[in-house]
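Input chain follows. Return structure tokens only.
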Amino acid sequence: MVSSGPELAGNGSVPGVRAAAGEGPEAERGGGGGGEVRLSRRRWAVVLLFSSYSLCNAFQWIQYGSVNNIFSRFYGQPAFAIDWLSMCYMLAYIPLLFPVAWLLDCRGLRLIALAGSALNCLGAWLKLGSLKPHLFAVTVLGQVVCAVAQVFILGMPSRIASVWFGAHEVSTACSIAVFGNQLGIAVGFLVPPVLVPDVEDLEQLAYHISIMFFITAAVATALFILVIIVFQEKPPHPPSRARALIQSKPPEDYSYLHSILRLLHNTNFLLLMISYGLNAGCFYALSTLLNRMVLSHYPGEVVNAGRIGLTIILSGMVGALISGIWLDKTKTYKYTTLVVYIMSLVGLVVYTFTLSLGHLWVVFVTAGALGFFMTGYLPLGFEYAAELTYPESEGTSSGLLNVSAQVFGIIFTISQGQIMDHFGTWAGNIFLCSFLLVGTIITAFIKADLRRQQANLESEQTEEVPEGSTAPMILEESRL
């Protein structure tokens, strides 16, 4: 099992900590690692900038899938080949996670941010060389480069939140970081059907595609320049006591391989990794196949198919933000995660049985309810993992969650696509519902061992507990 963190002093205080009294509204009481605990004003710029280039990368993931039928006709490729332009994101992540996570731990946030935004920019420009029907291989190359960029992005939210944000805002910060990725998918559902209409003339179609590719490349370039200027490695002072404890630990005590082994021996984390993968894998499959799914019941509704995808993501972003704020207020990780998982299952069941009713407005409503919980679950998983595995690197734990998500995403996308082709969309969605049920059961067996919160509480034992503190709730849940 993962160790519970650096040893605390006998009275519960952190050795070498001094209070940051009189430091203004941006300071917190206490500290660690030989310096005061203090919040940096730059933290909001860092998380918003990360969220922005994550948005751009996520847009490029779904920009082909949201108009699958149009790109299939333009390049003369089957729908399954266009599906792989999205699935290559999932495939690239699996072998590249460990070297990128190692770089994150050894070289830090700034290098990873520069690499992710640079590759995202390069992939966007490469796609501009694929504006002829016979150049499908070039668009594949550009998408693969963007897929590699995604490896430098997906594991960052919980790490940025932990390094830059205080104990009472870390879950909200993680939600904002994930927010950008989800907004990118939303824009990817909305914009391509508008910019790339289903016209017959291939030259005119190439012109419309070029507009979308040029805009994407310009935005990616601007964000890369901003990352160079704005993004810093870490704030001058640790933002929380838990972070101070980690920073006070000698670097030579850390081993990346041993960290992975400890994570893989953590039963609660393994259960979370499987349940997270099942939920996120279902989401990836639904996103990739949504265009085909909607058009099978509502022919010609390409724009509305994109709008349904937009509805799923926008409602999910609201769910993610509400979940993050709720966790910061209550710290009830297990109960919140379980309830959201159950509602994701209920939402998918309702969506499945209403998709074929022939009323688009019903699909919009049920898809929105599904997105609120299924997409809202994603930042919950990151933060729950950070709690269960403290003081291990958040980049490593998030990376393993994402590997699970990519593996299940590939399996579910291919399987559901085949089931839809042979048995219809109803059977394909029931296939996903069965795995969400399994994930719900697994989530119920995860013990809420909130190690990061416990580290913060133990370092506060010599101080007066503020009125309205959630400490009793945290301790009570950690016993479950």
